[in-house]
């Protein structure tokens, strides 16, 4: 297939976006994403006790087919959750889309985002699908990313590749952000595509690993919404087969792609003015490090200090302390943008005005390190907590 | 001792408040609370891995004395935490206070609230104590509650009693609120006094039980700050002895007192415009109910909906679902101010404008009920999430 170019879409996919009348404001609210041929597919879903119909349907379809899909249908404006006809909406959507491609209905994966419990007309999506089908085109990838936005301020698309020349494969992904200041129920959707050929079992394990190191590091628990969904399709259009023997480079590319999208989501958190990367080191295990990192990342007091460009290491130390992982504060150092602001649990000597100035920028790094050489390490991302978050969420439905 | 009057302070205690130069703004920042005679004492402390010196000192004193104290010294303006001399500050405070009363230094209980990691002069409190000692008076109880305020907008004091006539005892308590929108590290302090005579072991178990049903129901985990502390002193000045045989009425009075203070804290949460009481019923256990109630109470999406007077039952249902307690959404009902807004996981028929109007008031009740007759039940309190929370916390140190 020739050289892999940077920013190139995976081969063998087409896309379309349109308005199905779901949003109150006239803006694209429906995305159709189709592989030219049968693709292998993997999915990661919310673990919320309350799950939307598209989540349950897609999970069931993947089980029934053993990991095969031909297309994705995603909408914004209505979560298709907790309504009497949510199953009928999902069913009608899958059947209509499948009929256009002449495939079984369970080869259609579904995702929705929007308000929970709002009435959803059963024909809105099916009626709009033929128009989108007719307009499928490779150029519409970013428009699909735009159609699934809710409170996102920018569409999020990323590209990657693995291998070169005749062994090169392409990856591309889109994500729909989320409230994300505190993840809660703000839905996270991400759709990933590659033209590599990968068996469903390996595909699923690679996707699960990548999600754990990316989307699951940008929320307390990316499984908290009723609708959270990540899909990965692999259609083999590159002619390059990835197996357990040569999976490393592809996994690295998939990790990079999902990490970039995860950071895009954090950066575009509701009302966010800056992205924060939080690194915790020196715990016994990676899991302990992640628990502490998440406690820091989710502390409203840390997040508001970030908004105020305040290197408030006391809040960071206190937030770490409440994670439930015992540690000796006298062994704890805190770093802000690489400057040690707390040494051994006490204020370090540092130039506070200069650190404050570095915190005015739109990316801030926080480090929390326990002395003692233990190997546990984790990196998570979050954003600051500003006034806008409140106004966005207090007025969401009105 | 005669009839117990409503709102009466327990006998045998005196109080004083003053300015020790700890706050930047000149306002009382130091409180001295003294029993005329040796009292029995119990304490409940934060479980944060990072604990302030006054917390560790007080816990050690209670162990050393087996639950005896003569006085309490509490300050606002500095947490006395994560500074090189925090132990020296605590030690100097306890020794100076003890010398005034001629008691061992470990009969002095300590509490602090304020910024973590700020320098704290070792003589500030000791130098101010003699002036407070000279001014001790029963009338100064509420002034002490005022001296320990940080971002609280009102002092919080409550009174109670148990028994009548010759078996009557008095209780009184003060609390210092907390960020509390999300409890995190916002310090919660409460000091409770009774003139009943109660042995230390029983006193501690009654206090722990009361805290679990009150202050621990107004936060995810009241043990999250570096400084959270609740003390209960019982000096026996009423001449009435409470033992295991007659503890019921006293426990009920203590529960009521602490619950009222806990609700006062939630009502006065940073930037809060309303108090929300969240009741969960129908789980297998009380613990499951509390886990779900806390997930609802701590959801920023639910809290912002409260601020917007939006009966957004979808957010409540979704927040309940992410608590990690499996349930069938088709058995879930949601109530707002007594009106069923979600029935069996679906929108109920209700008059939305009229429910919205009831949500404009300063108290809102949310109910979440799982059908099926299981006995688990919990009530927790929280407040709404407004713009002011952000400005209070983004600018706290500046």
Task: Explain the overall architecture.
The structure is a homodimer of 398-residue chains. Chain A is α+β, with helices and mostly antiparallel strands. Helix content of chain A is 32%, strand content 26%. Chain A has 11 helices and 16 strands. Chain A has helices at 53-65, 86-101, 124-134, 141-147, 200-213, 247-267, 286-297, 300-307, 313-321, 352-358, 387-394; strands spanning 13-18, 30-45, 68-76, 108-113, 156-162, 169-176, 189-194, 197-198, 229-234, 241-242, 275-283, 332-336, 339-343, 346-347, 363-370, 376-383. In chain A, strands 1, 2, 3, 4, 5, 6, 7 and 9 form an 8-stranded mixed sheet that branches. The first copy, chain A, has a 6-stranded mixed sheet with strand order 14-13-12-15-11-16. A two-stranded parallel sheet of chain A has the order 8-10. In chain A, strand 5 and strand 6 (169-176) form a beta hairpin. The longest helix of chain A has 21 residues, at 247-267. Chain A starts with 12 loop residues before the first strand and ends with a helix. The model of chain A is unreliable at 180-184 (pLDDT under 50). The interface between A and B is large, with 65 and 65 residues.
Number of strands of chain A: 16
The H-and-E topology of chain A, N to C, reads as EEHEHEHHEEEEHEEHEHHHEEEHEEH
Largest sheet of chain A: 8 strands, mixed
Q: Share of helix among residues of chain A? A: 25-40%
């Amino acid at each position: 297939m020739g050289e892999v170019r940077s920013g190139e879409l995976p081969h063998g996919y087409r896309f379309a976006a349109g308005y199905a009348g779901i949003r109150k404001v006239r803006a694209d609210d429906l995305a159709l994403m189709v592989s030219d041929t049968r693709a292998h597919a993997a999915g990661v879903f919310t673990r919320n006790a309350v799950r939307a119909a598209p989540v349950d349907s897609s999970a069931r379809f993947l089980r029934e087919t053993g990991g095969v899909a031909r297309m994705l249908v995603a909408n914004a404006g209505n979560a298709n959750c907790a309504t009497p006809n949510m199953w009928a909406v999902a069913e009608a959507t899958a059947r209509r889309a499948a009929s256009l491609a002449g495939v079984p209905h369970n080869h259609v994966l579904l995702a929705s985002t929007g308000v929970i419990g709002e009435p959803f007309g059963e024909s809105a999506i099916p009626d709009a699908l033929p128009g989108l089908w007719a307009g499928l085109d490779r150029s519409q990838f970013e428009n699909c990313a735009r159609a699934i936005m809710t409170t996102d301020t920018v569409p999020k698309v990323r590209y990657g590749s693995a291998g070169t020349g005749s062994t090169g494969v392409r990856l591309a992904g889109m994500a729909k952000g989320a409230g994300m200041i505190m993840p809660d129920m703000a839905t996270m959707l991400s759709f990933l595509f590659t033209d590599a050929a990968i068996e469903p079992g390996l595909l699923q394990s690679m996707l699960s690993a990548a999600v754990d190191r990316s989307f699951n590091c940008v929320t307390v628990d990316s499984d908290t919404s009723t609708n959270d969904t990540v899909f990965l399709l692999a259609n083999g259009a590159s002619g390059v087969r990835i197996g357990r023997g040569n999976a490393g480079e592809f996994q690295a590319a998939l990790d990079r792609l999902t990490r970039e999208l995860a950071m895009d989501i954090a950066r575009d958190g509701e009302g966010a003015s800056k992205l924060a990367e939080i690194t915790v080191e020196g715990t016994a295990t990676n899991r302990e490090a992640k628990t502490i990192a998440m406690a820091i990342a989710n502390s409203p007091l840390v997040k508001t200090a970030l908004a105020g460009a305040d290197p408030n290491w006391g809040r960071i130390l206190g937030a770490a302390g409440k994670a439930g992982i015992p540690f000796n504060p006298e062994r704890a150092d805190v770093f802000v943008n690489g400057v040690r602001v707390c040494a051994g649990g006490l204020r370090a000597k540092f130039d506070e005005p200069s650190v404050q100035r570095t915190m005015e920028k739109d990316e801030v790094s926080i480090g929390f390190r326990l002395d003692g050489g233990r190997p546990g390490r984790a990196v998570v991302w979050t954003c600051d907590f500003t006034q806008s978050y409140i106004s966005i969420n207090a007025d969401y439905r009105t």
